Amino acid sequence: xxxxxSAATLAAVLLSxxxxxxxxxxxxxxxxxxxxxxxxxxxxxEHAHGSHGDSGPGTAGEAPTPKSEPGSQGAHARDEVPxxxxxxxxxxxxxxxxxHHGHDATSSVExxxxxxxxxxxxxxxxxxxxxxxxxxxxxxxxxxGRWSLMFHEQLFGGYVGEGGARGAHRFAxxxxxxxxxxxxxxxxxxxxxxxxxxxxxxTAGGKGYPLLFQSGETYAGERLHDRQHPHDLFMExxxxxxxxxxxxxxxxxxxxxxxxxxxxxxxxxHRASAAADPLAAIGHHWLDSSHISFGVLTAALLxxxxxxxxxxxxxxxPDEDRWDFDLRVPDSYAMRLTTNPTRNVSAQVSxxxxxxxxxxxxxxxxxxxxxxxxxxxxxGTAGHWASTAAFGRNVGEHSGDTNAFLVETNLDLDGxxxxxxxxxxVEKTDHDLVLAESFxxxxxxxxxxxxxxxxxxxTWGDFVPGVGARVSVNPVPxxxxxxxxxxxxxxxxxxLRLASAPMRH
Length: 505
Hints:
The chain contains six helices and 19 strands. The chain is mainly β. It has one domain. The protein has a 16-stranded antiparallel barrel. It has a two-stranded antiparallel ribbon with strand order 5-6. A hairpin with a 4-residue loop joins strand 3 (about 170-185) and strand 4 (about 190-195). The protein starts with 6 loop residues before the first helix and ends in a 5-residue tail after the last strand.
């Protein structure tokens, strides 16, 4: 299959977005920000999980430091950082901001600095993906010399169970921890470093946790089914370089021995619309499964409202050893066009070709096409509402064409009470679900529906603990009811969550 994109269309999008640069980029504010070492901003770290930024926050200077909340242990670095570009009085919702940078770069960039370095850090998500500028921020921040650092984490642990003959139950932990560092390289460029780790090789077990209709990757030499595989210990180790070009234009380079190519929406562990949900989407391997790729090189041309990326990467799925680097010569490529037309919206379309993605069938090539839209907005003075709609299509030379659709939402009402839900439809083959030979050549309509509630327990120092519950149902296609042993199996999870505390401003 060949997939082509019109170069004229892409150029038109970039040119039109560049023409709107003056309206799209907020004017920087300089009050109370100290300059260190050169003219321009002192950079902030890149977003955790996500992707990583290219705008840097300034130091606190003369700006007043907010008071610590009761029970917090003194003043924290995040309290000394200028506020993000949220509506006045709006606090970030805990755990929803997966922005690599934790605060708004526009407050620390000098008036004569290139506008491409003034882009809101809130838009940086997993890998080099963008999310809406209205995304809240969380994390612990500090500065040392010309370096700006950020630590961010989201960890879940609890008991998960799935009903039916293919269901199971166990204690499991999911999540990630991320450290970012960033510094300016002169007045018109920036360097970023990122390291992200997952505890899942220990906390999710070798074959992962039960999740009906899930598919992808292997255990003990066999294809996994109805379970979500654990993520590798090393989820990301990357270097980013951003260079401002002419006003309203910039270039970005991302190099990672393990990282995320420009393929798919923001990865599910880092989407604000899935921030309270500890479990993966069953369409993961149609949308964003390449978010852990061992060997990635991405180049991007960007304007204040659009970004065109090209990636060369290792498209082979990780092997069963979750503790090492599965490096291979890059053999795959991807391209993605993203636009942020307003501060509340981010949309992308992407295409990737992976000639040898499956370790069990290395000669089976895969084409993937994805499209998604994210919408974020603040709620009240401390809440946030994030939603994502996404489409993914896999085309295999032998497995045929299959599609996935996802809609998910995360509604933080007030910083403490969070409602979330997800609805999915995914076409899965007998090969995906590891069915008997009698099902050979069949494709099935699988559905996943889930809702949940998380109660945050307040801010404890740099962290926000919470307790939550999730309930799911998976209507079973009639042809598979003997295999799954139920018509409507029910699953669920009760869990604790530990997330980075929100930025206070």
